[in-house]
Amino acid sequence: MMKAFLNLILPPICPICAQGAEDGRFCQRCFDSIRFIKSPICSCCGTPFVAEESEDHLCGVCIKTKRPFSKARSIGFYEGNLLEAIHRFKYNGKTSLSKPLGKIMLDRFSPNNYDLIVPVPLHRARLKERGFNQSLLLARELARTYKLPIDYLNLKKIRATDAQINLKGKDRVANVKGAFAVEDDKAFDGKRVLLIDDVYTTGATIVECGKVLKKAGAKDIDVLTLARVVNL
Ligand SMILES: [Zn+2]
Ligand SMILES: [Zn+2]
Fold first, then answer.
1. Residues 87 and 6 both lie in one domain
2. CATH, residue 72
3. Separation of 66 CA from ligand 1 center, angstroms?
4. Domain span at residue 41?
5. Which ligand is the nearest neighbour of the Cα of 25?
6. 6 and 43 share a domain?
7. Average pLDDT taken over every residue of the chain
8. How close is the Cα of 84 to the center of ligand 1, in Å?
9. What single string gives the DSSP state of each residue in 88-127?
10. Residue of 162 and 139 predicted with greater confidence
């Protein structure tokens, strides 16, 4: 009743274009403008391939390198309206965007049997400055629907790092090396973990978090990010 009344006096709007939309969702036009990541992709790290007519297979990096996760998936390309929405969410403090952004993650991801959802942590200085961890807000949307616990305390970012987006390949790996640590190994021991982040840039952050979780005894790790930087 209350909700119906609120919708009447304050009709829900699209968080991107401010036109009318279904409550907590993007309007159809903005939704349709998002370029979603589809097969063929790397069956491990999820990077999309250019060739249209092929099946998912391992990419060159995943053939050569042992990955700490079983699969990493991203919902859309980090561009256009999705990039715009993530920027408003993250840098302009529009935390209400976690709802529509979380929904598009839920709509386009099939979960396995996870024990735990873990958001990629922020360093405390960054958390203080921003006031919230965007990955935790997204993780909450998933946890609510999947009915899974979230652990946002035991994976910690112990060293501040530069923004990955400003760095080149090798520097990104060095930038995050040793930046994460686990507080209590028992929290992850034998657990199947779904690791959540907002943007997958080169995967260096995810790989580093994955390694630390594996070392703490995590049995299996899948990764889900909202967007991915793709240079096709
Ligand atoms: Zn819109
Ligand atoms: Zn791969």
1. no
2. 3.40.50.2020
3. 41
4. 35-228
5. 1
6. no
7. 92
8. 12
9. HHHHS--GGGHHHHHHHHHHT------SEEEEPPPBHHHH
10. 139
pLDDT value of residue 232: 64
Global model pTM greater than 0.90: yes
H helix count then E strand count, the chain: 9, 6
pLDDT tens-place string over residues 150-170: 999 999 999 998 877 778 778
9 and 86 belong to one structural domain: no
The answer on 125 and 20 residing in a single domain is no
Of the bound ligands, which one is closest to the alpha carbon of residue 207?
Answer: 2
- Residue ranges with CB less than 5 Å from ion ligand 2: 42, 44-45, 59, 62
Distance CA 208, CA 191 (A): 18
Q: For residues 158 and 212, state if they share a domain.
A: yes
Q: What is the tally of structural domains in the chain?
A: 2
Q: In angstroms, what is the span from residue 230 Cα to ligand 2's centroid?
A: 12
Ligand nearest to the CA of 84: 1
Are 110 and 124 within one domain? yes
More confident residue, 14 or 200: 200
pLDDT tens digits, residue range 16-59? Answer: 888 888 888 889 999 999 999 999 999 999 999 987 778 999 99
Residues 49, 126 within the same domain: yes
Q: How far is the CA of 78 from the centre of ligand 1 (A)?
A: 17
Same domain, 7 and 122: no
Q: Where are the beta strands (DSSP E) in the chain?
A: 71-77, 116-119, 155-157, 180-182, 192-200, 220-228
Residue 47 C-alpha to ligand 1 middle, in angstroms? 27
Q: Judge whether 81 and 35 are in contact, CB under 8 Å.
A: no
The rounded distance, in Å, linking the Cα atoms of 136 and 149 is 12
Q: What's the longest Cα–Cα distance across the chain?
A: 58
